[in-house]
Amino acid sequence: xxxxxxRLRATCDIDARKRHEQQVVGLRDELATILHALPDPVFELDxxxxxxxxxxxxxxxxxxxxxxxxxxxxxxxLALDExxxxxxxxxxxxxxxxxxxxxxxxxxxxxxxxxxxxxxPKPSIADETPRFIVLSRKITARKQAEQVLRERESxxxxxxxxxxxxxxxxxxxxxxxMENAATVAHWGSLLGSRIDDARVSPEAHADWLASxxxxxxGETVRKEFASDIDGERRVFQCIVAPIRVGGxxxxxxxxxxxxxxxxxxxxxxxxxxxxxxxxxxxxxxxxLDRLEHALIGxxxxxQEGALLLIDLDHFKDLNDTHGHEAGDELxxxxxxxxxxxxxxxxxxxxxxxxxxxxxLEDIDGVVEGLVQANAIAGKIRDELNRPFHLMRGxxxxxxxxxxxxxxxxxxxxxxxxxxxxxxxxxDTAMYQxxxxxxxxxxxxxxxxxxxxxxxxxLHADLHRALRDSQFELHYQVQVDETRRPIGAEALLRxxxxxxxxxFPGSFIGLAEETGLIVPIGTWVLRTACLQxxxxxxxxxxxxxxxxxxxxxxQFRQAGFTDQLRELIVLTGAPASRLELELTESTLIEDAxxxxxxMEELRALGIRFSLDDFGTGYSSLAYLKxxxxxxxxxxxxxxxxxMSDANDATIVETILGLGGSLGLSVIAxxxxxxxxxxxxxxxxxxxxQGYLFGRPMGLRDFEALxxxxxx
Length: 710
Ligand SMILES: Nc1nc2c(ncn2[C@@H]2O[C@@H]3COP(=O)(O)O[C@H]4[C@@H](O)[C@H](n5cnc6c(=O)[nH]c(N)nc65)O[C@@H]4COP(=O)(O)O[C@H]3[C@H]2O)c(=O)[nH]1
Description:
This protein is α+β, with helices and mostly antiparallel strands and about 700 residues long. It has four domains: about 15-145, PAS domain (Beta-Lactamase), CATH 3.30.450; about 165-265, 2-Layer Sandwich (Beta-Lactamase), CATH 3.30.450; about 280-445, Reverse transcriptase/Diguanylate cyclase domain (Alpha-Beta Plaits, 2-Layer Sandwich); about 460-710, TIM Barrel (Alpha-Beta Barrel), CATH 3.20.20. The chain is about 45% helix and about 25% strand. The protein is built from 25 helices and 26 strands. The strands form five sheets. An eight-stranded mixed β-barrel has the order 18-19-21-22-23-24-25-26, surrounded by four helices. Strands 2-1-5-4-3 form a five-stranded antiparallel β-sheet, with helices on both faces. It has a five-stranded antiparallel β-sheet with strand order 7-6-10-9-8, with helices on both faces. The protein starts with a helix and ends with a helix. The relative contact order is 0.04. Ligand C2E binds next to strand 19 and helix 16.
């Protein structure tokens, strides 16, 4: 090797060493940087756990001060168990050549401190004693947090297990994640199951699903539900609420509390507070409350109502002679009969003693109120008059008791009146009933009393009239523009044995209200058909048609078409000469059914006339749909047609309307020649009124026809 070469080689060696040294320095700096970056202290321990060196960014991270740690073994620094645990970790790391983790506790001045360490064997030269790099992290805060968490969990568990309610919680997927023993006892364990897995009715399932969904959406739902447990229906109050973590909903939980007993108590309290324990009828307090409501409701709905005060006659005598047990039994039985006499929605109550009250509501109109109150009071009186069989008569023997009651009645409706004033009125009326000899009904208002008595008498009379054939038909001629008779209107008359001839205005209204119009109307139709058939058989009267008034109730009755069909067949009356007079009010209600019925009847050949035309509100469009033949101008327009320009215009308009709809028009109530001339001049071809003839009995009517014929 030349000198030159040797020099060169030496230079190369120096360069390599320098590079190596630079690399070592670089590595050391890198290591130092890593150590700096480490948040945890690093120790170097030997096999005895002696601290050979350490690095810590801050001395706070160490368990003790550096002077105590350096050169000391773990046995000298830590408690026995902790030291053994560290030494074991050193052995394990040495034996496995891998890093080993341990946690240990040091009792410090300010309480226990927790550390987590990771022990890694340090690479060593063959004969060197093993050394270890130990990374130690202070985890006291985490340990404390875990402890708090554990305590909270135990607290939660204790609460959940001991609350007197069922508890459950579900995650976002709807799976049950928590439950308590009460839940398990009622439903079996729900853990892991979804609401779809529950064995409940479809309705209960839908209900649960809906409340759960509302809770998932953030709402706290409160509701009640009933469930059968061991064959017993029990009521639960339930709360379903969202579980929020940091404002975000992570699940829902629910409490079901069995409130069956509470409900039962509430019901008992309610019963005691508002119901009479003997008869189980509402007591005075509840009755007054309902009456107040009825007063407000009837004023708002423009409906009538009635208050009936019922006092048992001679009740005290029963108590005195047969004892209180018999009295109590009678009161219970009276209550049961009262319940049967009233409609749903009405109230029967016991005021106390032998006094009862009935509140009737939602009655249409004062007249109807009068009729209904009278009818129900009558029914109550009749019911109470039926003998009572009392099992607990004096001496334990059964007795038959004949009871009677005095009933005071007062109506209420739109007038401003208090419940107590109403009671007072009913009371006054009841005393009048007592004064009238007991077992009587009495209205508070004398006018009402008179009207009710009269209507009740009229009602009974009407029944008798039907039975005893006291009705008759009168005929009023209808003429054409040449005054030639073309037919008649049949008008009902009642030949009362005591009161003489009664006109329909006095009884048709009551017959309508009570439904008697149906059999009366049937009689009218049968008589009219017989008359038509009789006229049809004679050439001089064969052309006559007969108009018959049909009331709404009669027209709507089931089987009306069949009834007329039969009548026509039976009597042989020419259907085409029968004209039914309907009013607009009949036609307006339930228009579809009315049109259908009219079509059926028209198919039989029957014609229709629209009575009182001009007084109602029928729309033209509606009129066009009806199979009518004739409009009848109401007599109120005809009456003043010469003096009232307005009425004259109305009559002209009706005549024009009839023309454009293709209907004939008849004027009703024509009394003077002027009226007749006016109407005829405007194209009215048919007329009815006193000018041509009043309604009259058959014989007179046929005499009138004969004059024309002659
Ligand atoms: N001022 C005056 N009045 C005249 C004149 N011409 C006829 N009248 C009266 O006007 C009424 C016409 O009958 P309505 O409008 O069908 O009105 C009838 C009808 O709605 C009803 N009615 C009569 N009979 C029956 C029936 O059999 N069934 C039904 N449901 N209602 C009937 O009773 C209402 C009254 O009948 P009526 O008392 O017989 O009274 C009749 C008749 O006597 C006149 O020139 N001047």
